[in-house]
Write a structure and sequence with these properties.
seven-stranded mixed sheet; four-stranded antiparallel sheet
C-alpha cells in the first residue's frame, strides 16, 4: 500500500512557476509508477504527466508538454511536478497517484490504472 500527500500548491500569476511535491509512504513506492493529474471545476480528471517506477520513462499530456516536468527521488520517496509558464487554464486541484508494480519502464496515462491517490493540492493561476 502507498499513502500520498501533495504539497506546493498556491496562487501564482500567469507566466509564473510552481513546484508540486508528493510525499509517499509505503514499502512499494520504489516499484510504483507515478502520475500527476488535475481536475478543474465541472471538468473530468485530466492526466498531466507520468513516470515509470525506474524513472527511466516519462510521458506528458500535450497540454503541458514543454512546460511541466515530472521527476522522482526513490531514496526520498518523493515525486515532483515542476510547472513553468503557468496559464489561467492550469487552475485546478492537482493530484498525484501511484500504480503498483508492472514493467519498470511503463508510464500509465489513465486514471483507472492508478491504485492510490493523494488528497490534492489547489493551484490557482491569476491572469
Amino acid at each position: 500500500q502507498v499513502q500520498l500527500v501533495e504539497s506546493g500548491g498556491g496562487l501564482v500569476q500567469a507566466g509564473g512557476s510552481l513546484r508540486l511535491s508528493c510525499a509517499a509512504s509505503g514499502r512499494t513506492f520504489s516499484t510504483s509508477a507515478m502520475g500527476w493529474f488535475r481536475q478543474a471545476p465541472g471538468k473530468e480528471r485530466e492526466f498531466l504527466a507520468g513516470i515509470s517506477w525506474s524513472g527511466g520513462s516519462t510521458g506528458y499530456a500535450d497540454s503541458v508538454k514543454g512546460r511541466f516536468t515530472i521527476s522522482r527521488d526513490n531514496a526520498k520517496n518523493m515525486v515532483y511536478l515542476q510547472m513553468n509558464s503557468l496559464k489561467p487554464e492550469d487552475t485546478a486541484v492537482y493530484y498525484c497517484a501511484a500504480h503498483s508494480g508492472g514493467y519498470y519502464m511503463t508510464v500509465w496515462r489513465r486514471s483507472a490504472e492508478y491504485d492510490y491517490w493523494g488528497q490534492g493540492t489547489q493551484v490557482t493561476v491569476s491572469s
